[in-house]
What we know:
This protein is α+β, with helices and mostly antiparallel strands. It has a two-stranded antiparallel ribbon. The longest helix is centred in the middle third of the chain and has 11 residues, at 35-45. The protein has one helix spanning 35-45; strands at residues 16-18, 24-26. 17% of the residues lie in helices and 10% in strands.
Amino acid sequence: xxxxxxxxxxxxxxxxxxxxxxxxxxxxxxxxxxxxxxxxxxxxxxxxxxxxxxxxxxxxxxx
Length: 63
């Protein structure tokens, strides 16, 4: 199953957290227009890990 939605990383210090065991947590701000995708993801994300791809929508050459 594939779920795609737009999100941004909030400009808060706690957006990225690293735990004592070396694992990390990332928080995302997801607009209300993407709620259906979020609900869809919540249904299966608890049962398995997911693969995450980040795409800024910009060409690498323009950076």
